[in-house]
Amino acid sequence: MASFNCFILALFAALMFSSIDVDLTARPLQQLPLLPKIGLPPLPQPTIPTVLTPGSLPRLPSIPNLSSAPKVGNARKSR
Question: Which end of the chain offers a freer environment for a tag, N or C, measured as fewer CB atoms within 10 Å?
Answer without folding.
Answer: C
